[in-house]
Amino acid sequence: xxxxxxxxxxxxxKDADAIxxxxxxxxxxxxxxxxxxxxxxxxVRELIxxxxxxxxxxxxxxxxxxxxxxRGEHWYLGLLSVDPAHQGGGLGSLLMAAAEEHAxxxxxxxxxxxxxxxRSALPGFYRRxxxxxxxxxxxPADATVKQACHFIQMSKxxx
Length: 159
Fold this sequence. Notes:
By secondary structure, this protein is of the alpha+beta class. The chain is built from 4 helices and 7 strands, in the order E-H-H-E-E-E-H-E-H-E-E.
């Protein structure tokens, strides 16, 4: 897949089932430390009402997404997901750039995100995009984990 063949658009409530499936497929690598799916359609609908999903489509099929939510001058970014069959081709970076541009144009000064410390490939990916580690945070108390883990918080100034 070429990123030039991808169309970006805002997610809508009608996309909740497809977004949840994509996120759960993309987050399968977390199954070694956490049980269950990452999200569900109800949760996706709640997020759409608070923020926005940017979707990447190829031939009208959702192959990537990212969630962004305004929180004052800081915006939160999460659930960056790329269909496993399309990973490694630049789609994640394309979605990140689109999310940052959208937030910047809406007045965001900083983009914040968090990743689980056991996902060893992720810090390097986000560092290459200009994010810096800013601290740690615990997982939600209701998370069912198979081994101890925590969030690594990262931020990027959107100058």
